[in-house]
Amino acid sequence: MGILKLITYLAGAAALGLSGYLVKLLNETNLMEQVAAIPSENITYFHIGAVVVIAWLIVSFVMKLISRAIIIALLVLAVGAEGTFVGMNLNGLIVEQTATLEDVKEKAEDMLEELKDAIDD
Known about the structure:
The protein is 79% helix and 7% strand. It is mainly alpha-helical. The chain starts with a helix and ends with a helix.
């Protein structure tokens, strides 16, 4: 029973981590006013992590491993983070960062540097 409580506490920490990552994304998007490009792996890992955390917290709730109030609070936090992330993804505020996008960004930065050098000369 002790190992199950430990896993529940780890799931709670992961729920807080999901919320922290969501706050970082909200900051990048300027509270949903701009688009943020993040790697597709991060999007996938966020969804998988949220599903695992939510599933374990539901199991913990049924098994009464720790206080139900704590589990309910963590569930609200995890489900809210996942719901907000899905909403941002569906609304287009989070887009997949591809190699092509990175190449275009690097080329634009190089051209800007060349232009600054040409202006200085």
